[in-house]
Amino acid sequence: MLMEAKQVPTRNKSVYQPTQEGLIFPQEPVFASVAEERRHRKERLAAACRLFDKHGFSFGFGGHLTVRDPEHPDLFWTNPMAVPWSMVKTSMLVLVDHKGKVVEGDYAINQAGYVLHSAIHEHNPEIIASCHAHTVHGGAWAAFGRPLSPVTQDACMFYGDHAVLGDGAGKVPVAQESGHPVARAFETNKAIIHQNHGLLVASRHSIDDACWHFIALDHCCRMQLMMEAVKEIRPKEIDPKFAAYSREHLGNEFIGWLHFQTLFAEVSHRQPDLFD
Does 9 score more than 80 pLDDT? Predict the structure, then answer.
């Protein structure tokens, strides 16, 4: 189910796009109807759940992914409560409003997930998708209450585009107001390190982009923890202008979407039941 095209756009979004015509390269989808776009978003959401399992992000029923409905922007789709990431199918996804009412679907929703994600979507109407999971490396790094250091090219994806949030640190966000500080933090950032809690990522482009950048953020947290364990020598920080340059070319939403296509190709091939 790879998206292939022989036409190279006249105006490239990235240096990674080929300039030579006639080559197969993923193209962002164009939809003939709202129903087609909804199906696309739901399939990518289900695939993102499977990828969270593949990357070891499972932790009981903890964690939640959401994507805004293309026709009804006040509603969002999310994964079902207490269904493992590895078993989520497109047909299981739940449509919910900002008050926590299930509009479509058979499953209950995660209350903490609803509080966080409804606030993110309601406060930031341009945000399409958001991700959160209780990951080992993300949770461990969040306990430090520190941002990522620009010491690797990968970490530069988040340079100037992530924040550490101390409000409600370590408190389970089940109260309605709990999601508000997180929602405000996403006004100017794509990623949040919630102190003593974990990682959250949002995208104004797609669930594809949000999923990839969540995986990348946890990856960067793992590297940072490994570097912190070496006491004899400290990593050298990247020059700010180079870090900003890398952020522009490696951390933009198109690149996030493009990375996801690689992961989607594999998971859709190996686990086609996710489309059921």
Answer: no
Closest CA to 13 of 256, 186, 260: 256
**Residue 169: pLDDT band with limits 50, 70, 90:** low
Burial degree of 240 (CB within 10 A; 0-12, 13-18, 19+): exposed
d(CA 243, CA 254): 18
Nearest-angstrom CA–CA distance, 211 and 235: 28
Please state, in angstroms and as integers, the Cα–Cα distance from residue 113 to each residue in 5, 133, 156, 241, following that order.
37, 10, 28, 37
**Cβ 31 vs Cβ 37: under 8 Å:** yes
Under 8 Å CB-to-CB from 148, ≥6 apart: which residues?
Answer: 141, 155, 158, 162, 193, 220, 221, 224
Q: Comparing C-alpha atoms, which of 161, 240, 223 is closest to residue 193?
A: 161
Structure tokens at 115: 């509080």
Query: Computed over its alpha carbons, how large is the radius of gyration of the chain?
Result: 18
Average pLDDT of the segment spanning 78-105: 96
DSSP letters of 121-184?
HHH-TT--EEEEE--HHHHHHHTTT-PPPS-STTGGGGTTSEEEE-TTTTS---SGGGGHHHHH
CB 43 within 8 A of CB 77: no
Phi then psi for 110, rounded to 5 degrees? -75, 120
